[in-house]
Write a structure and sequence with these properties.
- The chain contains 6 helices and 35 strands.
- By secondary structure, the chain is mainly β.
- Strand 23 and strand 24 form a beta hairpin.
- The longest helix is centred in the first third of the chain and has 6 residues.
- The N terminus is likely disordered.
């Protein structure tokens, strides 16, 4: 049933009533909206994965877990290093946060670098699509992913003690994972402990690792259609940490520590330093220790009612091994902090003022140290404001950023001003219509400015340009939220024009046997849509329902040099969800189109169809025991994500049976 056809389900009397306040419309979004607004009452494009969803999510990297949300794909760089792609944007244009603060890792530098934030220890993940989030600066020009955990408690646990244990196993890679968390209150103090361990071997693939298109481009033919195991696709991860919070009548303040230790293979990536020796498999070992401070406190100073602050310091090291020998090392250490003053609501007017600062040192040592040692400092000041009369409203923001990068290759300073304005209208309780405009600036990264050397992850010799200017995106987005009770829908239509779009383009030259790619600036345009529709077909009371859900997305991009590389094709998902007392069942059918609008030296990618099925048993969805089983890619389809650098060398896993149990108390 379409949203338009469902409109008569709401009575004329209900349609004529004024809209309720935003706070009454559902779950409040934390990321990018300091004063709290629900996802159905803002022009921002937001998706939220809550604790119940994450408790049965498959073990894997952040990109893999989020892949399939509207407008979100994965870089699919093996099992160990997949980052989210949002509206065709990846790398330095998608900001990944841990509890609202940057990761201070090296994951944005290269697609084979793992994100130092794992969904396995998250209690909530928020995904904001598009450039309208001014709270985080230019790195968020494509979108924001905020991984939120409970190490620093803001509330006392129920009955003074709560926790959980989760165990999963997977057939496709003979993998297993386990995680546990515990929070205990001692008067105003709350102690939190968390840990997880994940191990997975090389995963099975339904077809040969090298794609048909790649083989044909090399003038050969496939010798077999049989798959096997994807060599060097293993992944292991350990995360453990804890936190201490003091919770009082006016707020909370707390400290936490987290240590991440991971090692994983990079499929399709081999070292060839000695032409007379066998190529060595490349693996990566990652370690990060992170310390966080976070709090919120009520105050009464002028128009402000409370202050919120957070900060993190991290020491990160990433070593690329060539066989048993240590090769290139990447080190990143530094801190980031932010503070926000939240205004007292006055006649539907809410807002906040904030400051943000960052200091980070990046160093690379070894044969593939293609970026010189760089010191990065940033500072930003911003305000976000919203006026909501109940039927009409507007929201917007203004931000000023400065960024300085210093290296042996030189130093550059950048200043950017970003702004956004959104207008919205609620003709009835059921409808929310919005239009937003934004202009955002992004300063170049250290790689875009100073790169000069071989980069095996992109199979190229990369050369930066110290003369690059800031990239500016001017965007317009239309938003529709519909809530008719049994039918809900979300639609986003967007167009973004990039002036000075920073692209990595081939020069036609070769260096060290690799094609030379150079960073340059051009103009670009990205247009697309995301749609979600859900229809509750049958409702016989609490936890006795059947729903049909559909999501679809598409993005089309072009530059003055032609289509940019690795832009995902369209996709559509259809899902049936049955809840019957303690049982929940889902069947998902996902269709992803062919992508034949390709960049220079990029091969087209075939489309694919996958079928997934899930069933769980949980007498109490919030507490107690939950058992579940899932079959992913039941039809054993050959899945190659066009957004991946490895799409023609490393397909995604084949058919997988996953079993799991978790218990919360």
């Amino acid at each position: 049933m379409s949203a338009a056809a469902a409109a008569p389900l709401l009575s004329p009397e209900a349609q004529a009533q004024p809209a309720p306040p935003a706070e009454d419309l559902g779950e409040v979004v934390i990321t990018g909206i300091p004063y709290g607004v629900t996802r159905r009452a803002t022009t921002l494009a937001v998706d939220v994965l809550d604790q119940e969803t994450l408790s049965t999510a498959p073990p894997g990297t952040l990109g893999d877990v989020l892949n399939g949300l509207p407008g979100v794909r994965s870089t699919a760089f093996g099992a160990g290093a997949s980052r989210p792609v949002i509206r065709g944007m990846a790398g330095p244009r998608v900001l990944v946060l841990s509890n609202g603060v940057g990761l201070i890792d090296a994951s944005g530098l290269s697609p084979d670098h793992q994100v130092a934030a794992d969904p396995g220890d998250a209690s909530r993940i928020e995904v904001l699509r598009g450039p309208s989030t001014l709270a985080y600066g230019g790195t968020a020009i494509g979108g924001v992913v905020n991984v939120i955990d409970n190490r620093i408690a803001s509330e006392r646990p129920v009955d003074g003690l709560e926790g959980g244990l989760s165990v999963q196993s997977t057939s496709v890679d003979a993998g297993w994972s386990t995680s546990a968390d515990l929070s205990a209150a001692f008067g105003p103090l709350v102690v939190s402990l968390e840990g997880q361990r994940r191990e997975a071997g090389d995963y099975a693939i339904p077809r040969p690792a090298e794609s048909r298109r790649q083989v044909e481009a090399e003038g050969e033919t496939l010798e077999t259609l049989q798959g096997g195991e994807l060599e060097n696709s293993f992944s292991n991860l350990s995360v453990y940490g804890g936190g201490l919070s003091w919770i009082g009548p006016e707020g909370f303040v707390g400290l936490s520590i987290r240590h991440t230790d991971a090692d994983y293979g990079v499929p399709g990536h081999e070292a060839h330093h000695d032409p007379d020796a066998d190529a060595a498999l490349v693996t990566i070992g990652l370690e990060q220790t992170r310390y966080d401070l976070r709090g919120e406190w009520g105050l009464s100073v002028g128009p402000f009612e409370r202050i919120r602050f957070s900060g993190g310091y991290a020491d990160y090291e990433h070593t690329e091994f060539e066989g048993d020998e240590a090769g290139t090392q990447f080190r990143s250490d530094g801190w980031e902090g932010r503070a926000e003053l939240i205004q007292r609501p006055v006649d539907g007017w809410r807002g906040a003022f904030g400051i943000q600062a960052l200091r980070r040192d990046l160093d690379a040592i070894g044969d593939e140290a293609y970026v010189p040692q760089t010191h990065i400092s940033e500072a930003g000041i911003y305000t976000l404001q919203r006026l909501d009369s109940g039927r009409f409203g507007l929201e917007g923001g203004l931000r000023y950023d400065s960024r300085r990068l210093e290296s042996l290759a030189g130093a550059r300073d950048f200043q950017n001003v970003s702004a956004s304005l959104g207008l919205f209208y609620r003709p009835t309780r059921a409808w929310f219509v919005g239009l937003s405009l934004a202009s955002n600036g992004r300063a170049p990264t250290e790689a875009e400015l100073f790169a000069d050397g071989p980069h095996a992850a992109t199979r190229s010799f990369e050369i930066g340009s110290a003369d690059l200017g800031s990239e500016r995106a001017t965007s317009v987005e239309g938003t529709l939220h519909l809530d008719l009770g049994s039918v809900t829908a979300d639609l986003h239509l967007y167009h973004a024009r990039y002036d000075g779009f920073i692209d990595l383009a081939p020069t036609g030259a070769e260096e060290d046997g690799l094609p030379v790619l150079s960073y340059l600036q051009t103009d670009a345009a990205f247009s697309g849509f995301e749609a979600q529709v859900a229809w509750r077909v049958w409702d016989a009371g609490e936890r006795r329902t059947f729903s049909l859900e559909t999501t679809a997305d598409s993005v089309r991009a072009t530059t003055d040099l032609g289509p940019p590389a690795r832009i995902p094709p369209w996709s559509i998902n259809v899902r049936g969800v049955l809840e019957f007392d303690a049982w929940t069942g889902r069947i998902d059918l996902r269709e992803v189109g062919e992508q034949d609008r390709t960049g220079a030296f990029e091969l087209p990618t075939d489309g694919y169809t996958t079928l997934n099925a899930f069933v769980s048993w949980a007498p109490d969805p919030d507490r107690g025991l939950r058992l579940y089983a899932e079959a992913r890619n039941l039809n054993d389809a050959e899945v190659r994500e066009h957004a991946s650098f490895l799409k023609d060398l490393a397909p995604s896993p084949g058919r997988n049976i996953r079993l799991g149990v978790n218990y919360r108390f």
